[in-house]
Amino acid sequence: MIRLRSGAMAGVALSLLLVAVPAAVAEPEVVSVELAVRDRALQVTPLEQPLTALAGEPVRLRLDTKAIPPGTLFGDVVRMRATGVDGAAAGTEPTSVPASGGATTEWVFATEGTHTVRLDVEAYLLDGTPVQAQWHQKVEVQAARQQPMQLPDVATAPLAAAEAPPAALEAPAVAAAAQPPVATGKVTVERGHVDALAPRLIDGGLRVHVKDGSAVGTVVWREPIDVEFKVTDAARVALPDAPALSFLGAAGGQIHLLPQQEQPGVLWIGWSTEELKPADITGPVTWSLTSVAGPGPFGLFTTGSFGAHSVIFNSTDGLPDTHSVALGTHAHANWAFGKPGRYKLDFAVSATKTDGSTVQDKESYTFLVGDTTSTVTPDNNTTRDGRRNTTLASTGPAGSPAAATALALGLIVTGTAVMVLTRRRTAKETS
């Protein structure tokens, strides 16, 4: 079992079953590993000796981040993942560890011998540069303590006929990690966190799914064709006088913006390549915007600490636009729509497998922009990949705008250019 606990906060933040074991019976010593940021890189000082533990009893390792001053990393947080590399278990979900503090991992092993746990930590500098560190921690597990047993006195009785001993119970095998299934049915999401593009490798092929976390505490995987993203008038902002964003309209005009930073009441949309593993995929993933159908321009861009804008996708200057995404990325940016109405965005995602073959997928996404843009259920003229055989419907200008909101509140953020949180159906296309 692996548990990750923040040294500054109560509660268990992470749990991963390595092996089935009895409860711990002693408080183990906690050994610390220091993490620091030097020369724009995460640096860890691993232990020179392996940790030691008794089978069935916990061993603890603390990640000490006190050497990272506040304001060094975006969000003052490091993401940590512990993975059993000797066949004991699959990896954990990444968990946040506060800078200038730390967190403690707790492992329990049922069997004797040398076990290895891989620890991955990653964070982002204030300018959006990703930084990572990785090390392997060996744990020497010795035989469990033998507890003497006190047998009660029993009356002498004739021996009964001997029975065959029960068959020995086999240790439960840890099941191989399986991809969560894709839900069915049409949905409209208009608030909460959603990774709109989350590619997975399923049956050897690349499939792009929506990782829907809009309901707090749950994650539902969906086909993009089954999801309509509602951009309400709560997301209306005034377009600033910024040359990089002039393609969206005139300065001071109203646009609909799904922000890079989370804001209550509106969608917070990102993308994730956390489901793709280096053992299967080499190098970054290529993400392309191939076409846009709608009443106005569309743009995807990031905003840096001092208000500088970096455009990823611009629908007005010729498509396709292409963006490279590293494995293990979970990122957010600003999704901007110049006019209210119904938009269809076509995306293509491709990657190279470790055997040298290329895998790819293409999907269409529907955005309903503005309160007066109605939800329309796709009819029989909608193909399986979400493309319509007829012209997409769109509405006119939305109703009266909400109270004027300076875009600076939604765009000029304290932190990095990309809000990064740092992490399979038969392939439709392979080449």
Notes on the structure:
By secondary structure, the chain is an all-beta fold. The protein folds into 2 domains: 141 residues, Immunoglobulins (Immunoglobulin-like, Sandwich); 249 residues. The strands form 5 sheets. Strands 12-16-15-14-20-25-29 form a 7-stranded mixed sheet, with no helix packed on it. A hairpin with a 5-residue loop joins β10 and β11. The longest helix has 5 residues. It is globular. The relative contact order is 0.14. The N terminus and C terminus are likely disordered.
Short overview:
The chain crosses the membrane at residues 402-421. By secondary structure, the protein is an all-beta fold.
Keywords:
431 residues; mainly beta; Immunoglobulin-like; 2 domains; 7-stranded mixed β-sheet; 30 strands; 1% helix; disordered N terminus; disordered C terminus; Surface-anchored_actinobac; signal
Present the secondary structure layout.
Elements: E1 2-6, E2 14-16, E3 30-38, E4 41-45, E5 51-54, E6 58-64, E7 77-84, E8 95-98, E9 102-108, E10 113-124, E11 130-142, E12 182-183, E13 187-189, E14 192-202, E15 205-213, E16 220-222, E17 227-231, E18 236-238, E19 254-258, E20 267-272, E21 281-293, E22 298-303, E23 309-314, E24 321-325, E25 330-332, E26 334-337, E27 341-353, E28 358-369, H1 407-411, E29 419-420, E30 429-430
Parallel strand pairs: 3-6, 5-11, 12-16, 13-17, 14-20, 17-28
Antiparallel strand pairs: 1-2, 1-9, 3-4, 6-9, 7-8, 7-10, 10-11, 14-15, 15-16, 18-19, 19-26, 20-25, 21-24, 21-27, 22-23, 22-26, 25-29, 27-28, 28-30
